[in-house]
Structure formats: structure tokens, C-alpha cells
Amino acid sequence: MAFSTTVSQRKHIKRKAPRGFLKRVFKRQKPHLRLETSGDLLVHLNCLLFVRRLAEESRMNAFESKCGVIKKEHVQAAAKVILKKSRG
Amino acid sequence: MAEAMAESYNRDSEPTTRTLLRRVLDTADTLTPRRRRSARVRRLSSPTKMNVRRRSHRARSIGRLAHVHTSGNLEEQTPRTLLKNILLTAPESSVMMPESVVKPVPTPQVVQSSRRESSRGSLELQLPELEPPTTLALGLLAPGRRKQRQRLSVFQQGMDQGLPLSQEPRGNGSASSLTSSLNLTFATPLQPQSAQRPGLARRPPTRRAVDVGAFLQDLRDTSLALASPGDSLRTPVATLPTDTVLEDTQPFSQPLIGRSPSVYHSLPCLSHTEAEDAKRAVSHRTQSSGPRLQNHNPGKPTQLLAGKAKKVDALAVSFPNNSSAVSGEDGVEPLQDGVGEEAEERMEESLSVSKVVATTGTQGSVRMEKSKGHREMTEAAEAKEPEGSSGASLELASSTTEFLQARRPQFLEPAPPPSAAVLSSEPLEPLSTRLPPRARTPGPRPRQDPHKTGLSHYVKLFSFYAKMPMEKAALEMVEKCLDKYFQHLCDDLEVFAAHAGRKTVRPEDLELLMRRQGLVNDQVSLHVLVERHLPLEYRQLLIPCAFSGNSVFPAQ
């Protein structure tokens, strides 16, 4: 007995992946390409990891500047580093 | 010895330990009805002559012992009495027969070596009920000199009679511990845990009093979610949507005057009985609290807001549930205004707003701003304007409290256009014409809002991972970063797919991308990351797993 590819409506998944959004973004960017079904889940995983790294980096920046609030500059500096890392 | 053997052979063609025991007991001059029984002896396959010799030898020793204990007092806890009980109670044709045959043989050894009368006594107490285990125990009680031989003989008998070997090794263990454990299990009943460990007692879950309004709204949300599943991507229409079919149950006429348009603007409600009930309930509430609105309303809205805030937090991640957030905020303001009908209608409208995230998000944000501030009865047109300007999805992404303190001027019209399109059952088409046209920029809005609401999902995650308060500018910066990230991602995937000569991006491309990013390396595989960060349902879809029937899902 194999599981179904769809989740029944009653199941409440925590931290759902916005699959429609991801598919739409990909389609908009690359209309000539196609994305597979489980591919967008992996894209979501990638996004999660990216956001996590970004958040940690900006948090570190805020700590270093002894600030209790994350400011735009912290995020910007963090983004530079992390975007470069996740260039692939 | 020869006599014993001859004797045994004379009595039965196939002497068994059971019969030997019987003979022993019979000869020991007791009033037993067992003599009759001995006639009906089960024929078991006779083991080798050596075993017979051994058994006869033991039978003799039993005989010696039998003479020692002349009286068969049951009060005395002796092995003899135990054996008697066994023979009395054990059915001859029982499955446990082999055991009872085997086990009584070692018991003479037990008698010889040591007498643990107390333990036996407790065992004896259980004898009538728990026959086979006690026979086991008796058999296993054999410590002492003849242990090895006894076990060997027993083993051989067991082999010959097809006994499971598991019984034998058990005897190798500490017999005392086994009996003691048996004693424990037999003698001591299971005490209720609560008596010993009060901490383990199950406490009834503490339940909060149910807020009827929140409950009904939740019901409506779920029903709406079921009703219109696929509308999350609809973009809002510039014009006002349909309007209410809500029946006016309110007796208030004055507030209606100033708000008549807004009333009409209220969203269409799927004619749920729940909606009406909620309406009536709210109307009742507001009616009762009519003059003392200020006193009561803070209680209710805060209560509702608390409930809504809870809901909002719970549902903050998923898009379609922004409507509920909206509904929450909606419910708050009108109540405070003391206009019962509006409150209900707002609530219903907001509840009936289903999947159009963008507009509801914007409206919700604006509404939230207003709710804590001063209510103003404004026209729907004015109410709609700030929606477009606010860029609401971003604000919605921030904490709700920020909105509550933000500007508030207009009383937002809770009539998201998409809901009309979404809810086919709305009979409120004509109402839209009544609404004054809202000045809005229809062009870029449909593009931005769903995109922004999608991004807001990740922005919320960012603020969660950061664990620190953030500025709004920082959140906008995060959005820009995400945009850039998605562009990079798509480009990379395109390159990888083209490199593989494909036009479809496959999971292998994704894995290669993560490998190049350094997330996946030889120590950490993709499956590990999937297990760590994705919920179970996605993990099932991604990682192939074998199921029964030689099937693997997902198929490779």
C-alpha cells in the first residue's frame, strides 16, 4: 500500500510549503522550463535553509553591533555574504 | 534398579515420569484417587534406555523421599503436596502434558538439595490456577549437585518429546530470581500506579472556556476552506464585490443611517446557519450592552482578539488563513463601535472571505490599524483606498500589534472583491453596483500581492529564526534578498537542467545545487536535510521508502 501523493484536507501540516507560490515564481522566471512535482518541495527546503542562514548571519551582525534589534544594515551585510555563498 | 525397571516395564509398555511419580505417590500410602488415574496412562514415546534408567533411579530417590514424608498434609508445603496438586489438577491430555511430565522429574532433586518452602508455598497457592508456569518454576528450581545431569536429562527428554528448547535455557538462569519474579507476578497484584507514584496519575486536561464567537468563526473558516479550495490564486478585482445577503435582524436604525452603505458592502455570507447564529448572538450581545458599550466592548473584543490573535498566530504561515486574521480584526472593531449589525456582518464577511490572500491581507492590515484607534464610520470607498497604498502584505507579515498602534483613519470596508468571484453561491451581485467605485490601481496589484504574500511566508520564517525584534525596513530588505535569491535559484536550475540536456528541472538538479551551495556534502546527505527540516508528509513524498508487496513509494 503506497501513500497518496496528495494530503487529505483534514491533515494539518505545520510549516506548509507554499507550493503554488513556488511553482508560480519558477514559471514566471523561466516559462520555458518545467518543474517537477517533488522538485518544488526541495526548492522549499532550499529556501528554508537560505532563510535560516540569513537570519543567523543577521543576528550575529546585530550582536556584534551590540544592538537589540535587527536593523536594515545588518540584514544587508548578511545578505551579501549569504547570497554569495548560495550562488552555486 | 532392575526391579524398578521391570516394574516400570510391567506396568506400562512405555513408562513415563508421570506414571513413575504416580507410582511413588501411590505407594506412599495416601488416600488418593489417583490410583484410578494411573490406569489411564498416556503413552509417550519412550526415550532411550539410559533415560529410563535415570528416571527409575530418580523414581527410587523419590520413593525414598516419599517415605520420609509420610503424611501428605496439604498444609505443609512440601514438594510432595505440590506434586499431588499437579497431578490432581493437570489434565492428562493437556498440551502442557509434556511439561508436567518433564518437570516433576527434577523436583526430587529439588527436594534433596534445598527446600524453599516459603517460595514454594506461594507458588503452591497459585498452583490450581497457574499450572504450567509453576511446573516450569518447579523444574527450574533445581540448583545443587544434580543440576547438570538433571538438565541434561530434561533436555534430552525435551528433545525427544519435542519440547521447545526455550524452556531449558530458562532453567539455566537463576532459578531463585525466576521464582521470585514469578512470586512477584503471581502473588502481588498490580498496584495502581497512582498510589505509588502520584505524578504518573493522569490528570484531566485543563480546558479553557470556549469562546462561542471564536468557535463559530472557526467553524465558518473551515467550512469556507472546504467550500472553496482552489481560489488562493485569484487576484482581487478592482470593483467591490457582491454584498451581503445578511438579513438585518438588528433593531437599531440610527447606526444604520450612517452606515447603510457599509452594511450593504458587507461581504456575502454563505448562508450558513452558523453565520446567522453568530450574527444573532452578536446582536444579542451588542443589544444587551447597548448603552454600556464602552464597558463591555473592551471585554469582548479583547476576548475575540485574543482568540483571533491565537488563530492568527497559528495560521500565520498559510496564506488562505489570512482571511481569518482579517476576520479577527474585523470582529474587534465593529464591536467596539457598538454597532451590532455591522459587527456581525463584518465578522461574517471577513469569515466568508476565503482564499484571496492579497486583498484580505491588505484589508486585514488596515482593519487592524483601525481597530484599536477610533472608529469612524466612513464610506466604503475611503475605506478601500488605504488598502492599495499600504502595501499591506508586508505589514501583515509583521506582528499584528504593530498594526494596532499604526494609523487608523478609515473604517475598512470588509468586502474583498475576490470573495465575490470566489463564492459562487453569493447572490450579492447587485449590491456591488451600489457601492461607490473605489479608486484603485488594478494593474500591478494582482501581480504584486500574491507574490508578496508568498514571500511573506518566508519573511515570517526569517523573523522566527532570528529570534530578535526586527525593523520593518529590515523585513523589506529580507524580501528583496528573497527575490534575488529566487532569481539566482531559477538561473542555476536552468543551467543544471540544460547541462543534463533536459527541459524539466528534476530533483537531481536540486541536489546538485545544494551540493554546490555546501549544504549537502559527504557527511550530510540530502535525505538527512529533508528529514531535519521538512514535515513528515513531505518527507514521505521525497524519500523513497519500501512498502509491503514489494512496492516502493515514491516510485523511482
Description of the structure:
The complex is a heterodimer of chains A (about 90) and B (about 550). Chain A is an all-alpha fold. Chain A has a single domain, classed as Histone, subunit A. Chain A is about 60% helix and about 0% strand. Chain A contains three helices and one strand; from the N terminus they run H-E-H-H. Chain A starts with 18 loop residues before the first helix and ends with a helix. Chain B is an all-alpha fold and about 550 residues long. Among the domains of chain B are: about 455-500, Histone, subunit A, CATH 1.10.20.10; about 505-545, Histone, subunit A, CATH 1.10.20. Helices cover about 65% and strands about 0% of the residues of chain B. Chain B has a two-stranded antiparallel sheet with strand order 2-3. The two termini of chain B are about 75 Å apart. The relative contact order of chain B is 0.07.
Short description:
Chain A: This is Centromere protein W. The complex is a heterodimer of chains A (88) and B (556). Chain A has helices at residues 19-29, 39-64, 72-85; one strand spanning 34-35.
The amount of beta strand of chain A, in percent, is under 5%
The oligomeric state of the chains shown is: heterodimer
Low-confidence stretches of chain A: none
Number of strands of chain B: 3
CATH fold category name of the domain at 453-502 in chain B:
Histone, subunit A
Shape of chain B: elongated
Structural class of chain A: mainly alpha
Biased composition (Polar residues) (chain B): 284-297
Keywords (chain B): Cell cycle, Cell division, Centromere, Chromosome, DNA-binding, Kinetochore, Mitosis, Nucleus, Phosphoprotein
Domain CENP-T/Histone H4 histone fold (chain B): 452-546
GO cellular component, one term (chain B): kinetochore
